[in-house]
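Example record for the data management plan.
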Amino acid sequence: MMWLRVLCWRVLAIIALLLGLLGIPLPGLPTVPFVLLSAWAAGKGWPALELWLLQHPRYGPPIIAWRQHGAVSRRAKWLASVMMTGSVVLMWYSAAPALLKVILPLFLAGVASWLWLRPEPVPVMIEDKAND
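Corresponding structural encoding:
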């Protein structure tokens, strides 16, 4: 039964990672939350994938910042806010039900508020040992 649990964590890690990668070219599909989910699931059942994600030059720093401090970069906050605003504007001009046109903006406003209240990663200063 342990193999089934590991398999489920691995499947979740791969699906989340693929969705995150699809979010790179597709507007409206977030990348970072799916990569965070993938790293979390990989930590439960695929340590090698988790390590690869943590050491990745692009995705590693946001994952580590999130795990250590719950931090989100200002760039990610702006990008998410612009995407949420765009989604609301597009929905207003669509044939979506009126109830959805009221509930979704309220929900996304809550998400944006929560997001902007998250701390931002602190830049790491690297000491220059060559001048010592």
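Summary line stored alongside the record: The chain has six helices and no strands.
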